[in-house]
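Q: Hi! New to this. If I give you a protein sequence and the SMILES for adenosine-5'-triphosphate, can you show me the bound structure?
A: Yes, paste them in.
Q: Okay, here:
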Amino acid sequence: MDRERAAVLDSSHHPPEAFTRVADSKDRTPATIVDVQGLSKIYPKKKASGEGGIWSKLGLRRSGPVEQFVAVDAIRFSIQAGEIFGLLGPNGAGKTTTIRMLCTLLEPTSGKATVNGYDIQRQPNLVRQNLGAVLTGERSIYWKLTGRENLQYFAALYHIPPALAKPRINELLERLDLAARADEYVERYSTGMKQRIAIAKALLANPPVLLLDEPTTGLDPQSARNLRELILEIKREGRTILLTTHYMEEADQLCDRIGIVDTGKIIALDTPARLKASIQQLDVIQAEVENVSPALVDELKRLQGAERLLARDNNSDGSCTISIHTLDSRALLPTVIDLIGTHAGRVRHLQVAQPTLEDVFITLTGKQLRD
Ligand SMILES: Nc1ncnc2c1ncn2[C@@H]1O[C@H](COP(=O)(O)OP(=O)(O)OP(=O)(O)O)[C@@H](O)[C@H]1O
Ligand SMILES: [Mg+2]
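A: Thanks. Here is the predicted structure of the protein with adenosine-5'-triphosphate bound:
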């Protein structure tokens, strides 16, 4: 999104009177704070004609037929006030597209959604006043300003009176652990700090709903852990959070409920515990094996009682993690160990584990969440 557009969108915020509590909870806090009903986004997919594809793209030759690509396919979910709701799915599943439609940055092709009771298409300004968003791939913070100057700039844009803005900015800088570096240029911030200043900006107008697109992607493990802790704190203030992630551990740890998304559709929606319980009868044999040959993987796949098999290389040490879904690990385990030995594989670690959210995803889609 270009800066002007961002500014126009930002300037439509009107701050609530007080900042000490979550906004807009006076007389009407609906139990359902985000309601998505059959929302779809269809992109025209221009197909270049058989030969000379680049000439068409450059506008020098007529392009081929326009195909349609369904990025988000009639999804529906509702989020209760105070919940952390996660959209979990692989690359290209439609998570960002969904978030962008809810922020009113992208027009839905069809369907309907409300945020705090306001319709995203008919009342976009009111929707924007009720949510703060941190999107991936969009630089909403000015790197040539300091952290504090950014917040001052956006506070002015949101028409927050200076007397309220100053303590609010100090409070946010403190809370987001940026106070000591508040007067440095944002371009000198680490990735984690840039993410935190973007969250501070999103919280500036005290919105009841926060949308976070892949909040921890690109952060080191320690910063990611701190940010997850912060997200839980923001929830404890009474805010509702919609986040997207392709980290199942993150979804498991943070979310009250999760919608698993694949190719634009929500294919399962429940609490992490219930999603895992839905495949609880399944055991997962996990073996870390050195010297894995394609023939070994093939034979393991064909074993009677092996429902599904996944093999993932651990590039750092040359070993391979093999996960086998089975209904009866006790019966299968000796055969698995024998086969690995026959193919000159060396077992470094072996365990029978409970299914994770990734196993739920694999069971539902037949593919892995991460490549
Ligand atoms: N402007 C666009 N025009 C055409 N197709 C688009 C456009 N924006 C996104 N898409 C396509 O829509 C699909 C969904 O994209 P989206 O960015 O919502 O996925 P995502 O779940 O956020 O993935 P990721 O985990 O990689 O961020 C993708 O296949 C993407 O290529
Ligand atoms: Mg995305």
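A: Residues 1-9, 14-21, 23-28 have pLDDT under 50 and may be disordered. Let me know if you'd like me to explain how to read the tokens.
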